[in-house]
Amino acid sequence: NTSGLTLLGLGAMGTALAQAWLTAGHRLTVWNRTPGRAEALAGRGARIAGSAAEAVAANRLVVTCLLDDASVGEALDGADLTGKDLVNLTTGTPGQGRARAAWAAERGARFLDGGVMAVPPMIGAPESGAFIFYSGSRDLLDEHRDTLAVPARPVHVGEDAGYAALQDVALLSAMTGMFAGVTHAFALLRREKDISPKEFAPTLVAWLTAMTSYTYGIADHLESGDYTRNVTSNLAMMVEGNATMLRTAEEQGISAELITPFTTLMERRLADGHGDEGTAGVVDLLLR
Ligand code: NDP
After folding, report:
1. Cα–Cα distance for residue pair 158/179, rounded to 1 Å
2. Could you tell me the EC number(s) of this protein (predicted)?
3. What is the pTM (predicted TM-score) of this model?
4. Substitution candidate for ligand 1 out of 19, 56, 66, 169 with most atoms within 8 A of CB
5. Do 213 and 260 fall into the same domain?
6. Span 133-153, pLDDT tens digits
């Protein structure tokens, strides 16, 4: 006795979403620009719509999972959105999320923007840790919570439709920095015949895991405005450590280009007289 919904977009992520809803017993209407991709799902009970407009007409709840924001506008161009609950699981920027919310409101639809924090195999598998940031209409989420919780745990982060995209991108940006560090670490060891990357990996993972809680200290500094409280590793010490890191890169004959942007900013903050702080002050250096 589960409710029906429409899904537009059957790429890698859309197909994983569709499979999760079908497995959970939801009545699903699907549409994909290239029709062939929907056929495999028909065998599993999905209804295939001939056009995006027809798919939208089939259900109140309409989910889009397309390549980018422009493709959402294109796909929904001729559809009647009056009275619809539109959930956009297409990755975009905060600005695109807000503009899409205004666009949906003009067309008489409630709107929720989503940022999927998972890769397709994690969808529909609660133990994977997958979740989806949502922002925009909380009422929409509350009304369709059972359905929207099927692919991954919903996390509502605000009525501002831009917040899901903003937090999604913040997580991806943090991950980018983390993997820049991982890449540099492997490069340091790359020419050493007696150090195996596979044997080193568990040590690296354990170290990164232990260090992630440092994030709470930065958050506390930013919220309190006191960038020095409970500092165990101060900036003056860290900048000394950076010199050792850079010199080691030199000795190993590898480029330090992945780490110098951060070390340079730390030096600037130190030069401004903040040697007793942690690294929270670097956040302020980035505000343009
Ligand atoms: P794919 O490239 O596998 O699929 C893209 C989908 O968009 C296809 O269904 C494609 O249709 C459709 N599409 C592209 N352009 C248009 C258009 N102009 N009009 C209509 N449909 C169009 O991407 P994914 O499924 O992997 O990703 C979909 C969204 O999910 C993206 O925003 C992505 O960032 C997000 N996401 C993906 C993750 C992943 O790991 N895959 C992780 C988290 C988020 P067609 O078949 O006709 O080409």
Report:
1. 29
2. 1.1.-.-
3. 0.93
4. 66
5. yes
6. 999 999 999 999 999 999 999
**Angle 16-96-164 (CA atoms, 0-180°, nearest 5)?**
60
Q: Starting from the edge strand earliest in sequence, which strands make up the sheet with 110-117, in order?
A: 47-48, 28-31, 5-8, 61-64, 85-88, 110-117, 131-136, 153-156
Residue with tokens 């599993």: 44
Q: Is residue 65 within 8 Å of residue 93, measured between CB atoms?
A: no
Among 159, 189, 224, the domain boundary falls at 159
Beta bridge partners of 64: 8, 88
Residue 240 is part of which domain span? 166-285
The CATH number of residue 172's host domain is: 1.10.1040.10
**Domain's final residue, options 159, 177, 204:** 159
Q: Which of 6, 7, 8, 13 to mutate to test the pocket of ligand 1 (most atoms within 8 A of CB)?
A: 13
